[in-house]
TrEMBL record:
Keywords: Hydrolase. It comes from Candidatus Rickettsiella isopodorum. InterPro entries: AB_hydrolase_3 (IPR013094), AB_hydrolase_fold (IPR029058), GDXG_lipolytic_enzyme (IPR050300). One of its GO terms (molecular function) is hydrolase activity. Pfam families: Abhydrolase_3. The keyword Hydrolase applies. PANTHER family: AB HYDROLASE SUPERFAMILY PROTEIN C4A8.06C, ALPHA_BETA HYDROLASE FOLD-3 DOMAIN-CONTAINING PROTEIN-RELATED. This is Alpha/beta hydrolase fold-3 domain-containing protein. Residues 68-271 form the Alpha/beta hydrolase fold-3 domain. The keyword Hydrolase applies.
């Protein structure tokens, strides 16, 4: 495995992500209740995963419209504190509860483990919707970067399994791990996120299985099971390293006659979701419109062109907004067993 030769580099990378989060000065949203749950999902590989639930103090009368979010990890280094900030603000502004999904990390746990984790968690959450206070008719799935890859795959599989997804939000997603989509490569090369780092992340995730790069269960762009997808929103920066992925997948869904919408943020790169409050506002508005929590401007209509795994819950902690230890210290958790 390439991981064995790159173990020092991987350790340094995970430490760097942790240091970045420790220096982060932005605060989570106020008036958002945060519940941390340790979830035992019985897969072929039995293990525990964390769910973090964000509920605005203004939420009343459950069940709630719910966003299931998969954070960006590069498949190999979790950024839990950044997710703490973004998910809490979305929960505050959208009128939805937000559930942040966890997964094991490559290269200790390469493909298909991360997808198996998030999809098993999704099915378990649906099965226990009453306990989780979820309105099953108002479920959205979102993901950032590598999380956007897993979110798109999860939505495709959910539709095959006839499970509920009302809309999906893909934020700077990597949708083609073959890296063959080059429509906006000149703009992408203005991003400070280098292609060499992307290639390394993919190698760690797929363990140099080059035949898998075009597989639809890895690269959602190459899926032939798109016709039943729900409304799909794309957010990306003008100079985003994965802009071609979003733009070309957007075109593909449009050609199938599916409801799609895209937002390109001027002069932003791949880090826009971490830095740009307008992205949070946009996602919150998408959720409000998608769940009929606000009136939809008429102009937007022009774009119309089973058995759950076993589950055990344990309330791990209830964090106040001024206590960041769980998010900072556990942000690079490997979950290797």
């Amino acid at each position: 495995m390439p991981y064995k030769n790159d173990k020092k580099r991987l350790t340094e990378h995970r430490a760097f992500i942790l240091r970045m989060q420790e220096r982060e000065k932005r605060s989570p949203a106020k008036n958002v209740k945060i519940i941390i749950i340790l979830m035992s999902v019985l897969l072929k590989e039995t293990s525990d995963l964390f769910l973090v639930i964000y509920r605005s103090a203004q939420l009343k009368n459950p069940p709630y419209p719910t966003l299931l979010h998969i954070r960006g990890t590069g498949f190999n280094a979790s950024a839990r504190y950044y997710s703490y900030i973004t998910c809490s603000h979305i929960a505050e502004k959208s009128g939805c509860q937000v559930i942040d999904l966890d997964h094991h990390l490559a290269p200790e746990n390469p493909f298909p483990r991360p997808f198996n984790d998030v999809y098993a968690a999704y099915k378990s959450i649906i099965f226990h919707a009453n306990f989780m206070q979820i309105d099953v008719n108002k479920i959205a799935i979102s993901g950032y970067s590598s999380g956007g890859n897993l979110a798109a795959l999860m939505t495709i599989q959910a539709k095959k399994d006839k499970l509920p997804v009302a809309l999906q939000i893909l934020i700077s997603p990597i949708l083609d791990l073959s890296r063959s989509l080059k429509k906006y490569v000149k703009l992408e090369n203005k991003d400070s996120f280098p292609n060499s780092l992307v290639d390394w992340f993919i190698e760690l995730y797929l363990q140099n299985n080059f035949n898998a790069y075009y597989a639809p269960e890895i690269s959602p762009f190459w899926s032939n099971s798109l016709i039943s997808l729900p409304p799909t929103y794309f957010l990306f920066g003008e100079y985003d390293r994965f802009r071609s992925d979003s733009e070309v997948f957007y075109d593909k869904l449009n050609q199938l006659g599916l409801w799609t919408y895209k937002y390109s943020f001027k002069e932003e790169n791949h880090s826009l979701f971490w830095r740009n409050i307008q992205a949070i506002e946009t996602i919150s508005t998408q959720l409000k419109m998608g769940f009929n929590l606000m009136k939809i401007p008429r102009l937007l209509f022009s774009n119309f062109s089973n058995e759950a795994p076993s589950l055990k819950f344990k309330f791990f902690a209830k964090e106040n907004n001024d206590k960041f230890e769980f998010f900072r210290k556990k942000s690079s958790i490997c979950l290797s067993k």
